[in-house]
Design a protein that fits this description.
Elements: H1 7-16, H2 42-60, H3 67-93
Length: about 100
Amino acid sequence: MDLHNNELIEDIYLLAAGEYDLENFPNVLSEEVKNEFNDGSELSELEQSIYDLKERICDRLDSEDDSDITELDDKHMEMWRKMFYLGFYYGSKFSDRQV
């Protein structure tokens, strides 16, 4: 399985991350994959906490935006995207086994 060029995994990732505008661009997978960042969800609350934390750090640095904080955030998102892909890969690899 090519983890870097898989349209199905990318579609699932983007749906779960709430990145698709389903009103204007419906996706057939959206019936099975929910937006995990809907208001009030655990991930939505974590995302808000991260945003608030970044704001407090920028306030302490007396900066509207700090390039290191932005880079840290970008790298963190890249890491979690790769983990999502790996989770999908391992899930499919071991799907015939009982846990």
